[in-house]
Design a protein that fits this description.
The protein is of the alpha+beta class. It is built from three helices and four strands; from the N terminus they run βαβαββα.
Length: 87
């Protein structure tokens, strides 16, 4: 899972806390990517951060809907299981 964040973004802080809380019930790897580190990301997400990407698909963006993230994680795991991959 990728959390795209902005600089001094209070919504990003909230999203991080929500994702860390979710991770207690559904384990996943969380990688944070500051959009300021890449001009393309900054153009794409500047007005939408925080943005949560699960398995290459945008699950939610500001304001983050944690249930949408939960559903995306479950779908990604089911998709991997049906392909014979690891969850």
């Amino acid at each position: 899972m990728v959390l795209y964040i902005g600089t001094d973004c209070h919504l990003c802080d909230i999203a991080r806390h929500l994702l860390l809380a979710l991770r207690r019930s559904i384990p996943f790897h969380l990688r944070e990517v500051p959009i300021a580190s890449d001009p393309d990301l900054e153009r794409r997400f500047l007005l939408e951060v925080p943005v949560v990407e699960v398995d290459g698909e945008i699950a939610t963006q500001a304001p983050v809907e944690i249930e949408a993230v939960r559903a995306a994680v479950v779908r990604a795991r089911l998709r991997r299981a049906s392909l014979g991959g690891l969850p």
